[in-house]
Amino acid sequence: MYVAELRFECFADTTINRAQTAINGFLEALRANGQILGREFAVSFHDAEFRVRLMLPEPQSLAHRYHSPWVKQALLALTDAKLLAPREKLLGQDINANESCLETPSWQLLYTSYVHMCSPLRSGDNLLPIPLYRIPATFNGDHKQLIRWQTEWQACDELQMASATKAEFAALEELGSCDSDLFRRGWDLRGRIEYLTKTPTYYYLYRVGGNSLKAELQRPCPRCGNKEWRQSEPLLDMFHFRCDQCRVVSNLSWDYQ
Q: Is the pTM value of this prediction over 0.85?
C-alpha cells in the first residue's frame, strides 16, 4: 500500500460546511470503489486549502480510468462547492503493509480480519489483496456492499478476539456458521465476483472450538457434508479445508493449531 496526500483548493468564496460535505462525499465514493483504504480520514484546512492523507492500494489508484460513476459525480460536487479537482502527491510506500496483487490469480477468496484495512478480495496463489477497482463493479456501479460486508466481518472478529462479553458468542456464530446472515451476504457477493471475473472465488469460513483434534480432521464441509474437502497440505499455510462445490475454505480449529 502507498501513502498519498490530496489537496483541495478553493477557486471562489465558499463555506466550511459546503466544502466539508463535498470532500467527505468524494472520499466516501473513493472508499466504496476500493480506491482508498480505511474508514476515517482527517481533513485539515489552512490558507484556503484542504488537505487529507490517504492509504492507496497502488501508486495509481486514483487514476481517472478507475473512477466509478459515483466518484465522477462526487468530482462534480467538488466544483459546485467551489473547490478545484484535488491535486495528488504520492508520499511513498507504507513499509508496514502488503503490496497488492496485480496478476490474474488462478483462484481467489474473500478473506479479512479486524487488523486488515486492505481489500477483502485475495489472490488464492499468494493471499495478496486484489484492488477492488480492478474488477467489475459488484453492485450499483461500485463495491459499497462488499466494503460494508468487510466492515461487519471485522466488527465480529474484533468482538470474538476481545473475548470480554457475551457478544463474543454471537460474533462467532456469524463468522463460523453457514446459516448466519454474514455468511449468506458474503457468499452471495463471492458468487457475484466469480460471475464477473470468471475466476473461481471462495469464501473463508472461520473455525474455532471443536471437541478434539481427531474430530476436527474428520469434520465435513458444513454446507454440503463433503468429507473429502480436507487438503493434504494447508493452502497458503492457512486453509486446511476447501470445498470446490460450495466454494468454501476453512482452517483447522485454532484451538488445535
A: yes
